[in-house]
């Protein structure tokens, strides 16, 4: 069950005609339109959000994501229930002097592993879905107090697994921080985020010194751990970018630094895809949670780039990396039904809509301008390289007419946060 939480790609691609309950997955389309109708003064923002939602619906991203989340939550709850029925979380009452049979030692070792991996799955899924963990606090304490120091002894790459467990602790701190921001109900500008962000930075720096790149085996597992670390860094520091525009002068410098770190973390995460996973042909084996990392990091890096540059250059290193990632996940997809295909097209559309169109022959009398399906301004050329063919033809992306991300780098991003956002997508 724990494995199926992260490797159930085929199970979430069933045709909608053969699934039930998917109506809940698309209710937020009506919610978005309701908000659009109610806020007449903000109609342009409503159109952008609805355009983004329609795009995700068209690419069949929303319903599979809903099925993935629902299935994962059910699997986790069943795994926790079975573990408790099997007494896996019971305190080990034997002392070192108490003789233990070989079969009992094996049972205890297995129980430790089951409990720790349930704990890891619970923390990961709670972060992915933006929900509270399912595991009871008493069971969590058993894992932290008794099993966390010994579980990796029976595993190969023990340092990597210890790093995973410690990173889950840091992730929980970041998740609780973001949940606290939601509960306050106040704007970020009225909150002093810097002390908490500083605390999170120290914790993540400590983890990085102890575990990051302190291994030389199991490239796939270490790459997944790298991605998780960079995602947690981006996840924790991303609120700084939203608080920055309305922050005070005293806090602006620190918030700007955290915002830059979040952008750099998104860049580093995506670099793992291009530099490690793609050359090793490992993208097809990524667990579900890593697709959240890829999509979220791509959107965050694009947003950060747009926010800093009014006119994005096609030669921008961030844009080049995004192109490389989109091509890598498309080429690395094991088949046409894999969600990598939908995500690559979705990211390709968003990126293409954010860029100046490629220069082409301009018919006499045609107007030049930055329109999405228009003609690029003079001087812009399609960059050469292995990804030029993918992005040279605007028509292949089928960009919706009501999708506009160029004119406002902030409002379109809001549709990916909260209840309906990519925080809940696999």
Automatic annotation (TrEMBL):
CDD domains: fungal_TF_MHR
GO biological process: aromatic amino acid family catabolic process; positive regulation of transcription by RNA polymerase II
GO MF terms held by the record: DNA-binding transcription factor activity, RNA polymerase II-specific
GO cellular component: nucleus
Protein's name in the database: Transcription factor domain-containing protein
Record organism: Fusarium kuroshium
């Amino acid at each position: 069950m724990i494995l199926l939480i992260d490797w159930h790609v085929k199970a979430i691609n069933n045709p909608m005609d053969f699934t039930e309950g998917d109506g809940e997955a698309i209710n937020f389309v009506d919610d978005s339109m309701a908000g659009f109708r109610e806020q007449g003064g903000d109609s342009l923002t409503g159109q952008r959000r609805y355009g983004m939602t329609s795009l995700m619906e068209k690419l069949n991203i929303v319903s599979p994501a809903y099925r993935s989340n629902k299935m994962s939550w059910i699997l986790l709850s069943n795994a926790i229930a079975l573990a408790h029925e099997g007494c896996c979380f019971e305190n080990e009452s034997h002392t070192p002097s108490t003789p233990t049979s070989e079969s009992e030692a094996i049972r205890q070792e297995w129980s430790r592993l089951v409990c720790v991996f349930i704990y890891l799955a619970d923390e990961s899924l709670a972060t992915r879905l933006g929900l509270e963990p399912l595991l009871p606090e008493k069971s969590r304490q058993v894992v932290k107090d008794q099993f966390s120091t010994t579980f990796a002894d029976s595993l190969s790459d023990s340092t990597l697994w210890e790093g995973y467990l410690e990173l889950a602790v840091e992730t929980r701190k970041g998740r609780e921080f973001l949940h606290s921001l939601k509960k306050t109900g106040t704007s970020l500008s009225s909150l002093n985020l810097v002390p908490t962000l500083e605390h999170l930075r120290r914790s993540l720096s400590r983890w990085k010194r102890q575990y990051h790149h302190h291994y030389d085996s199991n490239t796939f597992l270490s790459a997944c751990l790298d991605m998780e670390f960079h995602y947690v860094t981006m996840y924790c520091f991303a609120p700084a970018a939203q608080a920055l525009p309305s922050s005070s002068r005293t806090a602006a410098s620190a918030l700007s630094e955290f915002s830059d770190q979040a952008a750099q973390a998104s860049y580093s995460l995506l670099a793992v895809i291009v530099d490690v996973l793609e050359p090793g042909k490992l993208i097809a084996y990524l667990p579900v949670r890593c697709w959240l990392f890829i999509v979220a990091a791509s959107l965050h890096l694009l947003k950060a780039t747009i926010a800093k540059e009014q006119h994005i250059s096609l030669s921008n290193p961030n844009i080049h990396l995004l192109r490389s990632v989109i091509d890598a996940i498309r080429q690395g997809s094991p088949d046409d039904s894999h969600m990598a295909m939908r995500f690559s097209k979705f990211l390709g559309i968003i990126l293409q809509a954010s860029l100046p169109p490629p220069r082409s022959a301009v018919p006499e009398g045609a107007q030049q301008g930055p329109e999405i399906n228009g003609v690029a301004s003079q001087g812009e050329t399609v960059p050469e390289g292995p990804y030029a063919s993918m992005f040279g033809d605007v028509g292949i992306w089928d960009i919706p007419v009501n999708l506009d991300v160029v004119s406002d780098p902030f409002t379109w991003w809001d549709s990916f946060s909260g209840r309906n956002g990519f925080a809940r997508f696999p």
